[in-house]
């Protein structure tokens, strides 16, 4: 840890099998350290961190003062004991947290790996692996460091990896060694390998690597395709060898891991400021009293010198005043006593246990309870404004299912049985003994169609069984295991398998299937591979009869324009079905085919060979060749795959949105997949005003797109306010700067057509002031890709991105790296000063979790790294609503009320001493948890920090000073001339002290009773018990017993009993109490009557309901699932155009890999299938002043638009092979899924509602020319109708809740 800091690397040189050469560069070892302390540094570092708290430094200063006998009237142990207790408790907690970090580090560092040392493989701990070592990895092992793949047990140096720890994706990726080292499979040959690698220095780019291998006087280029990164898992590969390039902290995994940060709540930061202010106030009071002491000693005190001399070393009135100043600093320190911090920690600890004990946050399926892993952030849970969420494993379950399909105009999968009857799962075994027993489908009509031999149905499933890149392994007769590169393909091929069209095996030139019990072998003539621009893939096969047919599957938006126009009715019906599937949040693909003559095939094959051998623009030539054959196709139908969401995700997101919490999804998935999930979980809805897509590849194009997006948002907002309608804002949005549709920032047409325009043709758009963005009305969403986000996060682009994104209700960032996730969180923290929460389940989410104010880990299928780095953890995303809206809100509310009361009480107590100094010669609950979920607007006071801020603090201390004035001067005025019943005067100090103290305790007890919303046994015991304890202790201190034993300390024997027996004393106490409390009561009653808070109205409503003995209302938590058509429960009728539900988690390059035969080998591993392994009036007014929110909505048809605000569409490309030395495989999307919850929320009222409507027939899909030009294409529908009253009272009425009924297993 004390190693000298080395200058940053400019280039890394690594020589294989030569530790002596590599050690001179002092590269980092493979040992990782995530802990903060060790045995030597713990005490000094931890104390240094704790004394950064202003309060701890303040109490340490008081302790030093109390050690000076000349100025201290209080014993030093009254401060050192509680201070030591606070420091010890915090130190123990920090030590415990760091112990678990050490334990985790040791567990990882002590894993074993096989290292090639002196010609033989030896087991070494990971921490002992060095740069330049050659290590052996075996199947299902984690990669120990970032290594250059040298050779594998598979043909052609291929291996398969899973990168869930890096990017959250669970589908397989392919890596390949360079050909010159692929044959080095023997340790003896590897021991003689002395190649040298020169490459880039350590960095956090997961998808990029650039280097060169020098060996035998030749050099070979290295790319990311040749690298295995630490954190990856080797899959479906028996063994491989690799050369360590980066180790330990230099690996890309660790480069993407954020530092462990010390997190403090906003209340802690505010209290630090207040402590400084209070200390200044304390100094002022001490100074005033010290000046008074000096004047009194000079003018009056000398008269008392004969019988009350100064204590040495005091010899003059100035020195006496100096000592009095410090004495008063000690005496009056109760304005901020250390008990405040002890009490705060106790309250936080109690709130943590409330979270741990919450049975409604317990997951019975995985037997996991919620856990508060920290006790310092509970009240921050009640102030969250931004949630940053991972997608895979957090929102989804990593499960995909074949849900519905449309074949020849007939939709299957829609269940319309009687309500309350559980559907019967189809049994495929009688039809097909090779069926997958785990496959679920319920619509018997589709099975009957297969049985009767319907030609369209057979052709539909034949296409699914042939058009894919799945590999099959038959472990035993009839026991098939599919190795799908993407789970989408796995689900489709499994569906075809169960309906009688079983994919059995393949070779580079054939595909063998079993069709309705008959084995059929097709000649595979060509695979037209998938990529993100083509959005489709095709195969050309020849059947045993010699007929040649092209089968194609892909996005409906690209397939429709390539169909024969002969059957528009079928196209229209299928488009309607696709529209319905998309509305249900399903991932859709369209299927088509085309028969080819022998002449057509020969001509195309020749042109394909020519394009494949081209030396320039090869990818564009191939794409053009593919496009030429994929024309004039006939539509077969469409598929709908369900990307299963976790239970309750749509309801949770809707509820959090109603609480004005903005949700951003940061995912490594493809854009289509992320957007599809956005619609599934109702984060995106068709009622939104516009969904904007940013996909520029340069800084200039991203800046142009962001500014153009803001132009459109402002134009639409003005149009809404002026009631101009769609035409007005659309024209304003596109014409304001002289740019018409088709003139994008750096736009090119799809494929680089003639209509492409250069940026210079469109004048630059000036930046829009941020204050204008605050006035935007309407609901917008932003989708931005990873390469665009990289430019948007540059320092000069931050404001551009932030002003656009923060004006949107939802933001989805696609293809982001773990470090980019953390950078987005830091951006919001830096510029918005808002409380952020990050939630994730994988190691790729750790940086984001550490960066956010609050980190939440989901204990899912991707390990426990996210949980270990988190502040709170639970098993399912839906528990987030209770964590924030119930526990977070309660914690914030209780803490704020406690602090307000505490400062009030202590100022009232302390200021009595201040007033006394002038006369002594200057000597010195709320609402239930269900209502919190039912009325999410109750959460907003925390976001706006309304309950404890500087204003509330000054109100509290003002009330405290007022109380102290009353409690001192009322007894002083009354008792100065009062006498006892026997005529003895009451004007002595002890009687006055007893009267004032009793009045003080009664007043503050009544005050806390007024602040209590719900009374329980505990409230009564502690409130009235503390009052009783006061009298008990006071009588004991004035008792005969203590006087006899300690006469010097307890010499006021009988004073309390004597004073409290006088009626005038109790009348004085009653008068002082009334003067203190009556104004508070009057103010609260007037405020409740004239300007009630939402919580007041909710409490009143609850009381009315209880009196009428009506049910408390339906919870939003669960939507009943039963029979009935899914379309009947569809959310949001569609307007003019339709949104594509296309999403396909596939990666280009596998087509040529298959046809080359390089991945063809029967594995001896017998592995399980890869895919199946993962089985408010006042609030609104304040917010309007702050954010200028949406005005009352207007009726009429608006257009939710899915707008692609892209400056350009990148040129068509088709990676020919993953084997190419210079080509890299892009980050794939993660395949995960969820049942679409057909629930939506009316965001205009505070009480959550779920509405459903029958979908309207979608209008025919518009021309694709707009997309080709790189400009926005809009999808239209109805906007939300806002609450015209502008308040929250409307939400207290009856809200109808209708549920979407559909079948699940």
Automatic annotation (TrEMBL):
Annotated spans, Disordered: 742-768, 1180-1225, 1254-1286
Biased composition (Low complexity): 1205-1222
Signal peptide: none
Gene Ontology MF terms: ATP binding; ATP hydrolysis activity; magnesium ion binding; phosphatidylcholine flippase activity
Comp. bias regions, Polar residues: 1264-1275
Pfam families for the chain: Cation_ATPase (PF13246), PhoLip_ATPase_C (PF16212), PhoLip_ATPase_N (PF16209)
Entry binding sites for Mg(2+): 390, 392, 841, 845
Domain of life: Eukaryota
EC number: 7.6.2.1
Reaction equations catalysed: ATP + H2O + phospholipidSide 1 = ADP + phosphate + phospholipidSide 2
Domain P-type ATPase N-terminal: from-to ranges: 14-80
Recorded topology in the membrane: Multi-pass membrane protein
Active site positions, chain numbering: 390 (4-aspartylphosphate intermediate)
TM segment ranges: 74-92, 274-296, 316-342, 953-974, 989-1010, 1022-1043, 1063-1086
Matches recorded under InterPro entries: ATPase_P-typ_cyto_dom_N (IPR023299), ATPase_P-typ_P_site (IPR018303), ATPase_P-typ_TM_dom_sf (IPR023298), ATPase_P-typ_transduc_dom_A_sf (IPR008250), HAD-like_sf (IPR036412), HAD_sf (IPR023214), P-type_ATPase_IV (IPR006539), P-type_ATPase_N (IPR032631)
Biased composition (Gly residues): 744-754
CDD domains to which the protein is assigned, alphabetical: P-type_ATPase_APLT_Dnf-like
Binding site for ATP: 390-392, 489, 530, 553, 587, 667-669, 815, 821, 844-845
Keyword list, A-Z: ATP-binding, Magnesium, Membrane, Metal-binding, Nucleotide-binding, Translocase, Transmembrane, Transmembrane helix
Cytoplasm recorded as keyword: no
This protein's GO CC annotations: membrane
Class of this enzyme: translocase
Family, as annotated: Belongs to the cation transport ATPase (P-type) (TC 3.A.3) family. Type IV subfamily.
PANTHER family tied to this protein: PHOSPHOLIPID-TRANSPORTING ATPASE ID, PROBABLE PHOSPHOLIPID-TRANSPORTING ATPASE
Protein name: Phospholipid-transporting ATPase
Naturally occurring in which organism (per UniProt): Oryzias latipes (Japanese rice fish)
